[in-house]
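Pilot study result, target chain (248 residues):
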Amino acid sequence: MKKLTASLFITALLLSAVSTTVSATGGAGVEHSGANISDTASLQRGAKWYVNYCLGCHTLSYMRYNRLAADLGLSEEMVMQNLVDSNAKFGDTMDIAMDADQANSWFGKTPPDLSLIGRSRGSDWLYSYLRGFYKDETGGWNNTLLPNASMPHVLWHLQGIQTPVYRQETSESGFTHEVIDHFELATPGTQSTQEFEETARDIAAFLEYVGEPAKLKRKGVGIWVILFLVLFTFIAYLLKVEYWRDVH
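Predicted structure:
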């Protein structure tokens, strides 16, 4: 009994450490996205937004169009007409025409592949990042989660242009500095605030799916595995009772 209690205590400590690590990775200002990769319609919309606004620079080199179609319930014709804007074939990976030399010449750096960004950052971080762009005092784009990010706000005409409203904050050491209190929408976009929140949520869900497509089936399989283990444990218990009946 003592060994069991000690094991449970150690497990609880490990889970607590993991939870703390994930929270620390997320960073300040991360909002809950509500992204749901089981929502096929959301993933379909996320794929559409990603192809239209992100795939021009950011590849998804570990995702193939045919796998995307199978998981999202899309036909080959739908994928080729709506998600492929190049000479790519149905079985190709989601790469871009721009090569590394062109990227370095135009942007100073090759835009990163985002195949695993959903797995490394999480959908909440991505959702907050997409909603965190604003125009700073220099007139350029900045971001609350990734200050001085080199990436422009490619979704600005959907969200609109928001500007920060600052407030004074005093640290424990007595130093007073300005922090962003909230945003004001200086120029409205083509979407309402609620509509853009849904767009950011769909893109975040799509990138979470791309980071681990097997997650769609893994959770469903896990339920059957647990049921099997429960049944096996019950049968093993009955066998134990039967074998030890004569001993007692």
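One observation from the pilot: The longest helix spans residues 215-245. A full batch analysis is planned for the follow-on phase.
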